[in-house]
## 1
Amino acid sequence: MGADSILFPLEFAGNNSEYLAVVRDGSVLRTISNTDYEKAKYPDTATKDTHCRITNGNISEIFIHFPTDKKAGTVKAVNPPDFVVDGAPKGLKSGDWIVGESGNDRFALLIGSIEEREHDFTIRFASAQASSQGSVSESLGRILRRLSVALDEDVLAGMTVGDFTSGKAGDLPVSAIQGVGTEYSGALAAKGIATVRSLYETGLKSVGGISVIRMREFRSKAEMVMSVPLTAETEALHDSPVYDLLNGPDGTVSSDGNPDTLDRIYGPFSFTLYPEKYDRNEECLAAGSEIELAAMPAGLKKGRDVLLVCGGRTLVSQVQGIDEKTLMLTIVDAISEKTFVKADTLLYANVVKAGHGERQPDRILGSGDAAQSSQSFVFAVAGTAFVPDALMPAGVRADIDVIVGEQIWTQVATLADSAPSDPHYVVRMTEDGYLRIQFGDGINGRKLPSGRNNVRLRYRLGTGLAGNVPAGGLEKPVNPHPLVDAVRQPCDAAGGADMETAASMRDNAPATLLTLERAVSLDDFAKLASGNSSVWQAKAFRLNDAGSRQERVQVVIVPAGGAASDTLCGSVRDFLQQHALPGVQVSVVNFAKQPVNLNVVARIRSDRFIFGDVIAAVRQALLDGLSLRNRRLGEPLYISEVYKIVEGVTGVESSYCGFGGSEADARVIRPGSDSSVVYLDVGSSSLDLVPQEYRP
């Protein structure tokens, strides 16, 4: 927010105010001027002006002292740089800002040191922000500071003192005046005011679209530009850049020009006003994988998992590199777009992965028999969990450990590549949803050794879609740990999926077989991604990258349940990359949601059907038929499809169906892109159902 968001009571302003207001104008501290503000109503519903709103966009702070008639002390002796003040300091201390008064001039001064004596105290000031560089007189310093208030900084940076004394500055475009810019320059130009000189010379007090107070401010600044006198001092500094005279070597206002005399001092300031959100950094993290930190945490190491959180946006990644000198952190997964606002973004490094399931006690699977080849067992327990694994054909593996004797054997995708001594096994699903675990035949994979009940299974039960709990749903672990006080789940859980239906298997199994587990065409990428049980559907696109010889493929996925998941995207990407041809770079992104709103009038015969029952059936039919599960990526939604669903419900004789909101008259809603899904979302869509008596 800009300075125009600073509101302060009207009583703080004006020459007759008992308050003393000092503003930070760029790098200068000075007393407030009536050209810095305009009267305003607060709140907006007020009947009269009660407050002031800052109109000078260069002001970043306002210091208020109350009241001005209670001075901190009267200066009785001056021995520069020391000022001797009557009485006691009364709480004044080093580091306080105060206001010094010399005749009609006021200075904002920072106390560098203070020494209390029996009847008085001595002050030495660290800086006098109302003064300029030591080589410039106090009066010229005041004139130059006015120029920094009058002109935009980038304009003033290229000008010399001679530009102002010669009148050349008057030829600057009127947009060079601070606050005018492109917003008001057009309105001024329409009145023949195109330069700073014409603004200075105009007699107009108001211009259409510009308030009287703001016009007065602009004219006052033009006067500052046109009123630099030609003196022996300014003539000697004719070729000196104004910016150099205003600023010290380190770019800050020089403190060498303390006032020679002071009559009295006021202070310290009672409170400070800032623009709204003055302490917020509204910039976004730059797209890419580098993040600049304010400080590097001591325990942050390469390889550690991290979580970037900004509101509802999250990014799960891993530390790839740390630069202690530049405080630059490099993560594995790049930020793809500028959505992480710095003021709201938190980087968590105390991150662990959590699964919504339950580890079960070991179960005896059976007894090994070395005389048998390709021995297998069926584990007749439904709901066994699966976890991502890029080496498996479907991108997931059963979350089990098979223990033979005291050795844990390895789960593989196929035994075809296993040596005779490799302790490998494969897992297949039965029609009943159980696990069939098969071992080697002594040629491809090791046979099971003989033994009584020597084959055990350690497994974990999952919860399917129900495990995709929303952010904040995980409050405590099942088994508390003495070193863990609390847990926080900042992002939605995702990746959980129910077991594939028979229909889904009929679609996906042949598709994945056709690819021969190798992604060559875009259709191959989509089919392999859809073969993951945590992915409802996928679509692949070829990305054009001018100047690059590397082929890039982007796959858009619809996660089971619809919850966006960077973790799922990462596991699917690793799986697809494993099966892609060499030289092909694969990226995986979540789909774009495009919820639809519906208004439906269902006409029902009340003598045959109950309104409530029919409306409930219509609602369920729409939620099912237009659900994310049943809609396709990049597919438009025609209003005729809605009619078909509604009038297919028993009890509905006829209906009126329409889209809601701004699309009320539309006959079709088209997706915003090929990666969007137009669907009826329980959480964000509006579904207005009205029953009406059917009249033939």
## 2
Amino acid sequence: MSSALHPLAGKPATLAPLLDVGRLLAAYHELRPDPALADQRVSFGTSGHRGSSLAASFNEAHVLAITQAICEQRAQAGVDGPLFIGIDTHALSAPAQDSALEVLAANGVSVLHAAPGQYTPTPALSHAIVCWNRTRTRGLADGIVITPSHNPPADGGFKYNPPSGGPADSSFTARIQQRANELLATGLRGVRRLPLAQARRSANLHVHDFLGAYVADLGALIDFEVIRAGGLRLAVDPLGGAGVQYWPRIAEHWGIALDIVSLEVDPRFAFMSLDWDGCVRMDPSSAPAMQRLLALRDRYDVAFACDTDHDRHGIVARSSGLMPTNHYLATMIDYLFRERGRWRSDAAIGKTVVSSAMIDRVAARLGRRVHETPVGFKWFVEGLADGALGFAGEESAGAAFLRRDGGAWSTDKDGIAPALLAAEISARRGRDPGECYAALCSELGEPWFDRTDARATREQKARLAALTPAQVDLATLGGERIEQVLDRAPGNGAPIGGIKVCAANGWFAARPSGTEDIYKVYAESFRSRDHLQQLIAEARAWVDRVIA
């Protein structure tokens, strides 16, 4: 993403003020959100509710209200099997799990949680739900993942995965949000809750071996025999996230040589390098944040990292360094649809409207259909569950794909799977993923992609989200005739919450941010970097004019 780099971007996190964990945890219990303030109410989207206890936007009251709302909504939906729950390594995750357990136990929900001291990656929880429900029609399981993903250390997050195993759809999350805010407004009257010690003694709470089940099943997804035979030098940096206990077990169980950069868990994430804006952010697709692993680039054939809940990936190839997400998505697709011969012959490729058109070119050569959706992994869940999608990915470094036999693996984003696939690709192809992508460019054309942000008021964001093709008064884009204007995704007809304008060798998409007072412009050119900048400039000028 092209934004002005902070002077400390890429520098050690210790050069900036680190999180006061004690103050954060005290605020979780002590601060009471004001339901009259929008920023302190529950905002429960497909990625759940996120915020910080210091800002009174992620506190005990939020978690109690959300959990009660989930208990009620799952009961109304007829979900009566166990609820899997897991946490990442953010400081607020453990106390939030305690709060959730108090409510779940009081509501009589059967809960499966990891052993004390263990963390649970998002894909391990999704995998557990998928496996539990695979042969069942009754007693279906669902889950809660307590994580703000790659957000800064002061943040907390709380999301719900229904029996499909992936992110919940908007109608379900809207009901959770509405009910949770009703509970907040009444001072939590209606929240059923047990003291933590009593909740932990409840007969409904059971320990589940997420780690063992996920690791033992990985051979159904990844060809470890090829990796072992490849003799590659591999490394992984868990970035202090929920996968810290998974990588040693993966290496041991599957007999692969894998150097683990660090197993340190520090809720301040003081071992990180600062991201582009000078903040601590565990984003494996951001070069400033990935300096520790990039420094080891020349020592390994391929190295990889995952974010805090391990649902995003970052790939460092010796040939090219940190791969832009779109490059690796195209590389994975080209490889998987050539090598996974047991997948359905009509299995399609899931991408969002802001992902690279290189994916479309790869798909056309493979003879595969592209299922293009709005931003949000929830749009891919059904296809990954029934095998209609062999692969689904987002330009924000989230992806998932099917088992080798064509069955469902995880219907949520899985950062571990693409990381291990980078090793499989390198071993089988005899060249790293960066070299594989370079070959695609030589055969299909090289694209230049970027995303920029611009300030926008709430009213301007609303106008942008409501734009229709009829309001696009541009005749050309980057010197080429405009061929297509979209306000709905071609794959499912759902509104994209913005506009996408396409020409023969370039496109842009503009959409408002759901969390900040900005709008985002995504653009791609198959001509040159200068042409890309022309596209962005034209897009920004047009958007500013129509939303003014």
## 3
Amino acid sequence: MSAPATPPPALQEFKDNLRAAPRRILETAFRSGNPSTDRTRSTFIFSNVFLHLHSVRVHRWTLKWSTSMGLGIATTAGFLLTLITGILLMFYYKPYPDAAYQSIKDIHFVVPTGRFIRNIHRWAANVMVVTVILHMARTFYTASYRRPREFNWLIGMGLLAVTLGLSFTGYLLPWDQLAYWAITIGANIAQSPREVTDAIGITGWFDPGGMQKFLLLGSDTVGPEALIRFYLLHVMILPLALMALMSVHFWRIRKDGGLARPADADQRLGNAPGPVYPVFTQAPLKTYSLAAIVRGRTPAVGNGPENTVPSMPHLFYAELGVFMLTTLVCLALALIADAPLKELANPSIPENPAKAPWYFLGLQELVSFSAFVGGIGIPTLVLAGLGLIPYLDREEAGTGEWFGGPGGRKVVFQALVVGFAAALAIESFAIRFGWIREWYLAVPQFVVTVLNPGTILAAVYGFYSVWLVKRYKSTRAGALGLFTCFLCGFLVLTVIGTYFRGPNWVFYWSPGDWPRH
């Protein structure tokens, strides 16, 4: 009978455990092991708290560059860059008027790499605004808002609103002249309902415009209350709201069957160009008893795993590539152009021209004719129309295709012509000849509110959309025309407000033509 094995000395066992600790840490963190088989690739995703928002497998159509152009991931990358650089800036920023401007100057001129970090923060925020707008346009033009993705379209609209809110609230934090008067313009836009209440004489007891301005600023003017309020919104409330909406957005993409694709996507793709991992490669580890079979109602019903590939590595490598490209763009822009910083905010010396952030300059152009229509009326109509699109367009033709649906590209190209031509014609007339108030000083304000370039432009676009619906007998055709027209109007008004408006909001072809003082 052999003697029992002698246990290793305690010190030797401790050394062996210490040597094996790094490997054991990886094994316990990634319990699925190396994602080298179909099963471990799947387990790698649904056992990870972050990655499980993705589906285990992804359709090959989703991986085509033209399907999404990576705009959603680019927006996410912009947010993460903004978040990381924002946290770094918080170490030095002081959110009260007496010190805010000086702390920004210290970041810009004293803190090592402070200027670069602030530049990245600014450019990542702008990239985020641009890509989220393009992402919404891509979703619309491919009819990806249709069933079962209607609610996720609304979530996307919420993400757009929160993104604009994040950028707008951060605009005030430098506390310089540019920031102070831009936020003043924004607060006056929020107060624009007073134009209507004044016209009908009810402002004394019903003043929604004044209430909106007070909620925004915490006071009647931009001051310490506004700064701390904007700071809290910018660094805590809105980022948390954005992360919550993003999580729901990604989760709904998975639950809604992935990105929208044409009904004949499999036929269009044909056979895979290279070897594809088989769908099932290993024997099952579990067995199940089947009590009954019922037909489900999820998008997965009737769809098998054919023509799909594991999300790991195919989808994740594509997302990583878009993330790296977005980071490269933000770094390049940060090296080329500095974030602006003007003189210390001075309430007694207004900027002339005082301009809102660039993404609100189209509204400011409309506000110059009617504060209520430009600041509240048209934005409300646009948001309501966008929200209703998935529930009004119940057609199926063209889903997942660029400019799909009756009329298709022809409607979009015609709408581009109508959209740009109408906006340029109305703006040119108003710039050259003025508007009702310049012609008749005693005209009632209500008339100016109802009849102004903004309402006329919106009416032209609306009538054109109705004409498209009747001609093509399709809600989708009308939606394509209306959406394209409003995009054209937004671009025209934004360009005019950015480059051609000078002191007192007068039109100038060049800043060189501005009056000299």
## 4
Amino acid sequence: MIENIYAPFRLPFHLTFCIIATLFYLLMLKRRGSRHYLFLLVAIDLTIVPQFVPDKNVVFWLGVTEVLLLTLIFISIISESIKRKKKRKSKSIKDHIDKNLIVDAFSDDI
């Protein structure tokens, strides 16, 4: 069997890895709903392309695509983190206001 110099692993191991990674990231996407899991799933599954098309041009464009996907993953994680912080902050402000309303409702200062 001729070994493909562009593929990171031999085909059976690589295929098994991609299937396990796909199932894992689909589960994480369903559980948490974060977009970056979808981007990770696509990025990992695209690594199998050189197994079937060992052309330099294909591998080059695959590399460009992987870099773009990694950038999307990074941006997605940061934007979701910012949204989570804003949501937590607005929830704490709302809780603080609700506590003050309850305390004011039972005060005799009126």
